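On clarity, I found the account of how folds are encoded harder to follow than it need be. What matters is that the chain and its backbone geometry are given together, residue for residue. For the editor and my fellow referees, an illustration may be useful. For illustration, here is how one protein appears when written out as sequence plus structure tokens:

___
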Amino acid sequence: MSDVNRAGAVAGWTRVVTARPRLTLLLALLFTALTVVAGSGVGDRLSSGGFQAPGSQSSYATAALADRFPDSQPNLVLLVDTRGADPDSPAVAAQGRQLARTLAADPDVAGVTSYWGTRAPVLRAKDGGSALITARLRGDDDAVAKEVKRIAPAYRGAHGPVRVSVGGNAEVLHEMQTTIQQDLVRAEMIALPITLVLLVMVFGSAVAALLPLGIGIIAILGTSAVLRGITGFTDVSVFAENLTTALGLGLAIDYALFIVRRFREELAAGAAPRPAVATTLRTAGRTVLFSALTVAAALSAMLVFPQYFLRSFAYAGVAVVLLAAGAALIVLPAALVLLGDRVNALDLRDLLRRRDNAADRTEAEPGARYAALARLVMRRAPAFAIGAVAALLLLGLPFLQVQFGTADDRQLPGSAESHVVQQHLRQDYAGSPVGAITVLAEDVDSAHLAEYRRQVAALPGVVRVEGPVVGKDARSAYLTVVPDGASVDAGPQRLVGEIRAVPTDFRASVTGQAAVLVDTKHAIAQRLPWAAGIIGLVTLLLVFLLTGSVVVPVQAVLLNALSLTAMFGAVVWVFQDGHLSGLLGFTATGSIETTLPVLMFCVAFGLSMDYGVFLLSRIKEEYDRTGDHQASIVFGLRRTGGLITAAAIILAVVMVGVGMSRVANTKMLGLGIALAVLMDAMVIRTLLVPAVMRLTGRATWWAPPVLRRFHDRFGISEGGVPRTPAGTAVGAAPRSGEQRDPEPASRN
């Protein structure tokens, strides 16, 4: 694409979005109102599961056992506290049998088993203070969530001489979904006022500060409507709501900050509102578009994974990114045309300080500080590069000890009823071992099943084998294998493979927590190279189209990945090992849910590239104008350093709001990404990027001739300004409204 064609396209786009600004804003308001209606009730249609890999052996066995042997897979547990009485006393026994009969009569309930119906010791607490009634709720995750919401209140609380508490996986998932929705509202109530205050501090103008919030609201409401539509075709995780709020606010603020800041620069240089918007779209608007495509690419990589938990974040993430960018490139320019110089109105900081040159100080001093920092870093580039890399790698060392596990009731706060019930099962019921492995045998006869049971019992690490329990057709049965250790331990996971390797003349399918974990890890490992390849290739291509260099994209990918080391190290040190668990209010499980590192990598990588594109675009713009490599780095950091830091702090506030959730996985997601964003803005962009670009010198901008010609034809540069000949770069006249750095740098 020629420069003329690109300029014409941008000019045409500018005319479209600014020709009728009032109509544009009216249509945006109508769109927002429609999304409110379309997205209503989306929370009730979201699911709490999605961690298992569909199509895996454990997934098949779980579904088959639930259908044929509902007793083997109970998802509802009634913990009957006898209030000090003996469970076999007449009054307690009568009440227990009555509860079991009432539960069994419910058409949505199957496989009810109670202590009073079986007298099985495994259903009676070791201290005799309680007993169990277990059942299987029919249907998929959504159906089970509705059933437990209806059933649980009828059984919870006092019933004559006993008191009932509700637990089981169904209640855990329901309580988790309810808690997440409540926490999301609380996070919004906390994050929005703080964000508004920070925006006022950054912009100095209440009018300018409200613009990013408006863009964020459009993106969040629009994404809720998109998710509402997607739930009609596939499952969507309830956790995706948190990402929608965080990314919607964060990216809208990023994009609006960048565009409004550039618009104000053009106004300060003497441009009228419409020409200022045109220049802003030609420069900052292109950068926002590239940034959005990069973030969307990173998030879309999660579509390659089979678990709908991960796929849900791709649905929500891509939608909110594109809506935030669309609102920033359509609605925001129309508002800026109408506001003009009034974008600087209502400077609330005047209440705290004198007005003398307030705007000049606000704009100039942070830029000067970042310019000075860039010069310092480049003078000591090897020391800063080695020191920063070593520090980040050191912070990431705990991740080498990561243990992967599955989500369970311990994600909930210790006071949650389902957590309390499950904890009683772990501690007080010898017959409910954590990590039991279940084997479904199909098309089997008794002789082969007995021999198979003997071989499984002889495997190392098997404590005992219970069963078999034979089905009504006498051709199917299941065994319960109790391993030595919990499901997250290496022994039970190895045992799953050994059981599957036992030769049989019938079909044997293995499930249980350890088997689910093995299959989940296998599914993720199998598709992880594809996800990494998508992220890497798209990022390399987009950054190349922006810069015309083959070196800069490689630097960007490597430095972005490096910025995530502190996040992963902190996740293991805090959430796996339990440091700060008392302060942060969660229960450490000794493992990290298997899918979460993938999710956190994709989200944090995309956000890091967001800031990287902002910085690189301004550096490239200045390099195209002057040909001075080092001066361009100083210019880029001067113009974007404060902006990136402010955007990172605001996004971190939003993510910390998410991280205040009472659900441990959500807490880890929010706090981990907040840390990654801050490390990227304050270490990678301000220290490592200037140091590495100084070390690579003018070779930073190298590309082979064939790729250079490709970029000349298809690439997009922000400034669109022809480069000044190298011999006249230093000391060239600045553009209107710009100041040249007082210390010209050499051209290495």
About this structure: The chain is about 65% helix and 10% strand.
